[in-house]
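Hello Y.,

Per our agreement to keep a running log of every chain we model this quarter, I'm adding this entry. I've kept the format consistent with earlier entries: sequence first, then predicted structure.
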Amino acid sequence: MNKDQMIDLLKTNVPAWNEWRKENPEAVIDLSGADLSYANLIRANLIRANLSNTDLSYANLGSADLSYANLSSADLEKAYLRGVNFFTNTEAK
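Predicted structure for the entry above:
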């Protein structure tokens, strides 16, 4: 799945996105620079996703899993973050 397809699926159907992630655990998730502002991303599996420079302003990330995600320079202004998993292990390589 290319980057544009990933963005479209994530923005339109989080359950299908999560199923695709389950079926493709080794897929590289590079959403850097994407416009996900105002997106409904409740419970989205964004583990190890590259979200650098991504616009997540006003997005609903409630209970999303952002473990090990790269959020450098991401815009999280007014994003809903209740229940988000931000787990990172500083010893991981």
